[in-house]
């Protein structure tokens, strides 16, 4: 099962407490650790977390710097834990705008965790689904026979997702907004969507479980006729 999370609401969490927005990101980083643990315990195969969008570069300089600092710190502190927990870590998105030392830290974490079998943790940084689709389309341009599966593989390639990930089963967005904000547009074609008002720093294992329970109650049809509904003659 592939779960993706738009971790939104850090700024509001801080503002409500009279704190500067970066304080919300510090608290949000703690919630990331809890979510990763909860997902691994729940048997999720792939967890993709939206940490920084390509549009987030437009934020004030100190906020962007703070987020990059937290990300680097996360890699330093969590890589060991991922190795111990057999979690493979990948960073997806563009790499050409990240600073050199962060890039090295990313590559280091990816190499050290490459044997992880229990869960694939993908962290989206400088990520834009539209940009990824555009890059993949450019690579695919001359192929008339390209299948959706092959395109998906190209998409994983341009996003640096090694190994590639399957489509999303459950997309969670915290913070109350009901939009995708350029996240995994191709991969969410048939994802179940779960929106919660809970702000990201408050998202804990219990909240994660509630999302999984809600997902378990959904009937996924993928455009087909549900066999039970048809048998009851309701169609
Ligand atoms: C999500 O929280 C974290 C990032 C986008 C990096 P926000 O910073 O967007 O928090 P709000 O939405 O302003 O509350
Ligand atoms: C989406 O949140 C990006 C991340 C959570 C990293 P934003 O806060 O940037 O999205 P918008 O601006 O509300 O659409
Ligand atoms: Mg936001």
Mind sketching the topology for me?
Elements: E1 2-6, H1 10-16, H2 21-42, E2 46-53, H3 61-84, E3 87-92, H4 100-112, E4 119-127, H5 129-140, H6 148-158, E5 170-173, E6 192-195, H7 205-216, H8 227-231
Parallel strand pairs: 1-2, 1-5, 2-4, 3-4, 5-6
Description:
This protein is of the alpha/beta class and 235 residues long. The longest helix has 24 residues. It is globular and about 60 Å long. 37% of the residues are buried. The model has no long low-confidence stretch (mean pLDDT 95). Magnesium ion binds next to loops.
Radius of gyration: 18 Å
Strand order of the largest sheet: 3-4-2-1-5-6
Q: For the residues shown, what is the average pLDDT?
A: 95
End-to-end CA span: 30 Å
Please give the share of residues in helix: 40-55%
Number of strand elements: 6
Low-confidence parts, pLDDT < 50 over ≥5 residues?
none
The major β-sheet equals:
6 strands, parallel
Shape: globular
Tally of individual helices: 8
Please indicate the percent range of residues in DSSP E strands (runs of 2 or more).
Answer: 15-25%
Which cofactors or ions or other ligands sit in this model?
A: 3-methylbut-3-enyl trihydrogen diphosphate, magnesium ion
Class based on secondary structure composition and strand pairing: alpha/beta
Listing every helix as H and every strand as E from the N terminus to the C terminus, the arrangement reads EHHEHEHEHHEEHH
């Amino acid at each position: 099962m592939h779960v993706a999370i738009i971790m939104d609401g850090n700024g509001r969490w801080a503002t409500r407490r009279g704190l500067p927005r970066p304080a919300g990101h510090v608290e949000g980083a703690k919630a990331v650790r809890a979510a990763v643990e909860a997902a691994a315990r729940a048997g999720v195969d792939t967890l993709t977390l939206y940490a920084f969008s390509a549009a987030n570069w437009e934020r004030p300089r100190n906020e962007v710097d703070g987020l990059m600092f937290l990300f680097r710190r996360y890699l330093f502190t969590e890589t060991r834990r991922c190795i111990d927990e057999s979690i493979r870590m990948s960073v997806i998105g563009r790499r050409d705008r990240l600073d050199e030392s962060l890039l090295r830290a990313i590559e280091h974490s990816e190499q050290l965790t490459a044997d992880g079998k229990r869960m694939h943790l993908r962290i989206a940084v400088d990520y834009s689904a539209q940009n990824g689709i555009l890059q993949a389309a450019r690579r695919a341009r001359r192929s008339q026979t390209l299948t959706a599966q092959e395109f998906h593989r190209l998409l994983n390639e341009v996003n640096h997702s090694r190994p590639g990930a399957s489509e999303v089963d459950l997309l969670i967005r915290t913070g109350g907004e009901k939009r995708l904000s350029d996240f995994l547009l191709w991969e969410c074609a048939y994802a179940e969507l779960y929106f919660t008002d809970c702000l990201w720093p408050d998202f804990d294992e219990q909240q994660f479980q509630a999302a999984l329970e809600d997902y378990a109650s959904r009937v996924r049809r993928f455009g087909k006729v549900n066999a039970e509904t048809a048998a009851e003659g309701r169609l």
